Structure formats: structure tokens, C-alpha cells
Amino acid sequence: MRERERERDQPPVIQSACSWRTGLKKRIRFCNLPFLPFQVYPTNVSLVLASLQVLLPFKEKMSKKPSLVVFDLDYTLWPFWVDTHVDPPFRKSSDGTVRDRNGRLVNLYPEVPAVLQQLHSAGISMAAASRTGEVRGATQLLDLLGLAHYFRYTEIYPGSKVTHFQRLSQQSGIPLCQMLFFDDENRNIYDVSKLGVTCILVPNGMNLSLLNHGLEAFAPS
Ligand SMILES: [Mg+2]
């Protein structure tokens, strides 16, 4: 009775909600279920939808991905200068290792294959941009080390990387602001970031942690 009196005193809209809730309470008791707090039952659908409306744009923002990820080569993908520290041409031995003309072992930073594979699996296009003068050696290494198939575009020649990125944008039709760039040299980071590219400095070779850092840095831009 007290509950009915309380319902009568409520404004019309609240009263309707209370009546509906009372009915629900009775039905729950009939089924021998405990009457849990209001929020536990799926009665607050509008509240849930309102929460989603707030959360979805944030999730969408965080899941924003670059259209093109560009990597420098020397000291970003491999730990040497291809025009100085090794001697082309390179060859692949029967055991699968890659060596230079003097038999020196040539390799990538350990997590580079996983980095490229992760981006490839996510359907993100990749490019290589290097200012080395050893164009033939760098191209040969990309092939022998099993990286060539990952890169849709390669820009390898001396000079400012502003040119490399302008050409990448022209070739791909991808705006510079949709690109993410990894490089070990501050001068390149400085030049390319002025174009609107999201740039990440690579201090000790490319790795998965740095990739995640780059993707997070790109998302809010
Ligand atoms: Mg470099």
C-alpha cells in the first residue's frame, strides 16, 4: 500500500516508471530471482546507448591508422650504413644467411620482421625512404633479407627526405598527414615533420614497442 501511495504522489512520468518497475519486481519474485539493483537488469538501455555514444567516437579516434608507414633503412631497419660499413654486392648463403663481398654477416634489427608483418597483417601500406648513395646495395639487401615484398614504394637516393616524401605522396595519392615515419636521424625527423608527417625518432633500431608508440602518436593527429 505504501508503495502505491508513493506512486500516486509521483509526477506522471516517474509514476509510470515506478509502476513498470514494480511489475518487473513482481515478475522477478515470481521467477524466484533476487531483485538486484536497478542498473543490473537491462532496463537502462537508453543509458547504455548514451554511454556508447560517448565512448564510440573515442574508440574510433584511437583506432585511426596511418595510410602509409615509411621506414628509413640505415640504423632503422639494419644496424649499419650500407654505403660505409659493409661491401656490396651481397649474397645469400646456403644456410640462409646474407653476407657481403667480404663474407661479413649482414642482418636486421631483431624485431624488424615482426614489425613489418604486423603492419602487413593490419592492411597498412609501407614504404622505404633512404638517402644513401648505395642505391643498388640497399635495394639488393631489401630483396635478400626478405623485405622487398612489404614495401609498395621505395625512394632511395641522396638528398633531403622532403623530396622522398613529396614523391611518395605523388605516387601513392596519400596526403602527407596520413603518413607515419620512422628514422634514426634528427635532421630527417625535423625536415619531414614540417610537412605534416607524424615522425618518430628511432634511437636503437626499429622494434615493436616503438611501432606501438608511433601508432599511438599518429592516432590523435
Ligand atoms: Mg638512417
TrEMBL record:
Coiled-coil blocks: none
Transmembrane intervals: 40-58
SUPFAM superfamilies: HAD-like
Keywords for the protein's UniProt record, in alphabetical order: Membrane, Transmembrane, Transmembrane helix
Pfam families found in the cross-reference section: Acid_PPase
Gene3D superfamilies: HAD superfamily/HAD-like (3.40.50.1000)
Entry keyword annotation includes Nucleotide-binding: no
Signal sequence coordinates: none
Record flagged with keyword Thylakoid: no
Protein name: Magnesium-dependent phosphatase 1 isoform X1
Protein source organism: Pogona vitticeps
